T-complex protein 1 subunit theta
Amino acid sequence: MAMHVPKAPGFAQMLKDGAKHYSGLEEAVFRNIQACKELAQTTRTAYGPNGMNKMVINHLEKLFVTNDAATILRELEVQHPAAKMVVMASHMQEQEVGDGTNFVLVFAGALLELAEELLRMGLSVSEVIEGYELAMKKSLELLPECVCASAKNLHDVEEATAMIRPAIMSKQYGNEDFLANLIAQACVSIFPESGNFSVDNVRVCKILGCGLTSSSVLHGMVFKKETEGDVTSIKDARIAVFSCPFDCMVTETKGTVLINNAEELLNFSKGEEDMMEAQVKSIAEAGANVVVTGGKVADMALHYANKYKLMVVRLNSKWDLRRLCKTVGAVALPRLTPPTPEEMGHCDSVYLDEVGDTQVVVFKHEKEDGAISTLVIRGSTDNRMDDIERAIDDGVNTFKVLVRDKRLVPGAGATEIELARQITSYGESCPGLGAVSY
């Protein structure tokens, strides 16, 4: 008979079998620091323009080849609670600024590594925290003195290109000039005079084939779709957008029809056809020449759309439908009713095009004052294009940050070195044990 050894009374007795409880400086704090250091070590070699790519395979067996820390951390399954806090800080940096996620991770790891030395010297945790907080306040005071340049006119493509270029270099070294110019064109074309800039207004469409240098900017939206009917090109498009299927409205209840003679059988579906034709005709008479639907397209509706020279485009994604409404200024209608002039969208041209061997539908604005711009990215592999898209995200977010604050500081670690030098000299003049943290 196996002997049963009871757990010691107290907190440990409340935990599940196999759970471990650590307490005190040696067990808890140093273990947490070690976990954060190991996490920082994982992405440290991916930092900067000479950073190496990482191969990450997530739980769905999807492969990522990237040096973007935000993507690496998003796909890693971090279990340690202390390391999770550093990951959360990195995610917050991604949401607020859009770049610098690896810096947050590496910097946090370096601070914790130095904090470990101070704790082993005999300082308490609160004294180390106090020193770090004082150093942070001093850094914010010193940063305005490190400003080396300022953006004067963000509506100028050349100036915007020069500002975006350093952010692209850390992700796509060697392609920074070409990509920065593309991103600057896309951002400047949708940057209003009011100064309100949204990163969601710059879209990316990835089309396999050719090389990066074949990429281009288009003022409008591009969808990897085909048109449903025979009409494939419309100039001066007036667009009706429906979130419902392009089909007859049917009731949910079932009905039974009694047919007494051959004539009734012949006329059985004629009423439905007449109703469908009347609906399509009323949409055409309202002035619309392009119909965009978020549901299925019935064969009968498509037949009458071809008859009345309506171009039909089907978008399965409600997000694409919403963005298209924003691009063309349309209102998505929930039912198949004729749109009013205020509910219709407008754009210079809608046409079916072939890029490589991919069919795309283009909603194009001729003037550079549209609500949305699209970067059409070409590449030899999907992984390559995904990595380019992440670099574009960083460039667009850099433009967003410049809209908020036009000041620039020297890069390549120069600002950090100067801050470290000044904070160290300031720390030597401060009294108390907390100053040792400097």
Notes: The longest helix spans residues 382-404. The CA atoms of residues 167 and 395 lie 6 Å apart. The chain has 14 helices and 13 strands.
